């Protein structure tokens, strides 16, 4: 449960700014009640990605490719595009992965190999999809018939879902078991789909289920609402992702580390399809590569920019926030020069009377915090320290003010810490990127506060 308390700036701020902040924070509280349908029109881009070994690289200890994607998405796409995670994981294992890795919050989550569709952070289920899957499906008959095959071993209880029965089976027995079991279930009057992936996982689903059908269902809903995404990019690495690439008129990327079963499917079914590529980069880096290959939009992550002062990126509130935290992380990790120039660069972009209310409730000057930052140069060098932002949204008020709201996360040797953050930005021609920071307010998420808050600045 997140409890957020907004405070107005101190009397040192001009009266006009104080009134503006009061109006903005009132609007923010009202906006929280708006439903999850965040876009008024079609999404500019919808990315539909598998998680394990596609978006998430389990061989990347620091999740660098995932963090690169996160920065790209929040800076350039979050405001007008849709992020969909399509995973074979059950809700239980999906939530575990979110705690383990620096993942963004998707707009839509497809779980349990396409048998569950949920919306938003609250993961509201799609009842229409549930009713559709109930046709010609009887879970009891499935388990009864599967019990006749000793080669099948039940997966954990968390992976057994209303419309998915999951087993492990050795690769050498997979094809034989799939054919025989399919015949048995057909004789019992069921219309099912059996999916084998990962060299060991066997899932039995209703015929209408699967990652591909779930995506087709979503696209049909968007089309009926007049909101069909302008472009859709599907991303995968294993056999249970093959259906995603079968959907007409989508772009697709098989990441470089794709498994043989998916590559074989591609060779047999889609090798001449120019809209599907086999990336040369692993996991999330391959997704970024595909965005550029298909010219779906900007594919330069702020984490790939060495010198922001020379970067040719159109200024936006989202990019401003992401850029700031990339610079802050690099400073603490000692990855940029220990130069007063960097401190002055940041101070130039904050109002001299600007205030930050830190998660502890302590009120400090923004420029004072920037000065303090100077003494922390390289204090995280050689240590675990990564920062990312999530759920970034911005609203413009008047001609020169933006209210930016996001979740800010830090992962360090001390653990994972996060807070809800709200920032007031104003446009200013002489600011380095056209924005100046006026006010910041942060509130800890329950269970993610920091005991020693002396080094928490922004």
Automatic annotation (TrEMBL):
Alphabetized GO MF terms: magnesium ion binding; sucrose-phosphate phosphatase activity
Cofactor: Mg(2+)
Domain Sucrose phosphatase-like: 44-295
Pathway: Glycan biosynthesis; sucrose biosynthesis; sucrose from D-fructose 6-phosphate and UDP-alpha-D-glucose: step 2/2
Keyword Magnesium: yes
Keyword line: Hydrolase, Magnesium
Described purpose of this protein according to its UniProt entry: Catalyzes the final step of sucrose synthesis.
Domain Sucrose-phosphatase C-terminal: 317-445
Catalytic activity: sucrose 6(F)-phosphate + H2O = sucrose + phosphate
Superkingdom to which the source organism belongs: Eukaryota
Name of the protein described by the UniProt record: Sucrose-phosphatase
Quaternary data: Homodimer.
InterPro entries, per the entry: HAD-like_sf, HAD-SF_hydro_IIB, HAD_sf, NTF2-like_dom_sf, SPP-like_dom, SPP_C, Sucrose_Phosphatase, Sucrose_phosphatase_pln/cyn
Enzyme class name: hydrolase
Pfam families (UniProt xref): S6PP (PF05116), S6PP_C (PF08472)
GO biological process: one example: sucrose biosynthetic process
Entry's family note: Belongs to the sucrose phosphatase family.
E.C. no: 3.1.3.24
Organism of origin: Cinnamomum micranthum f. kanehirae
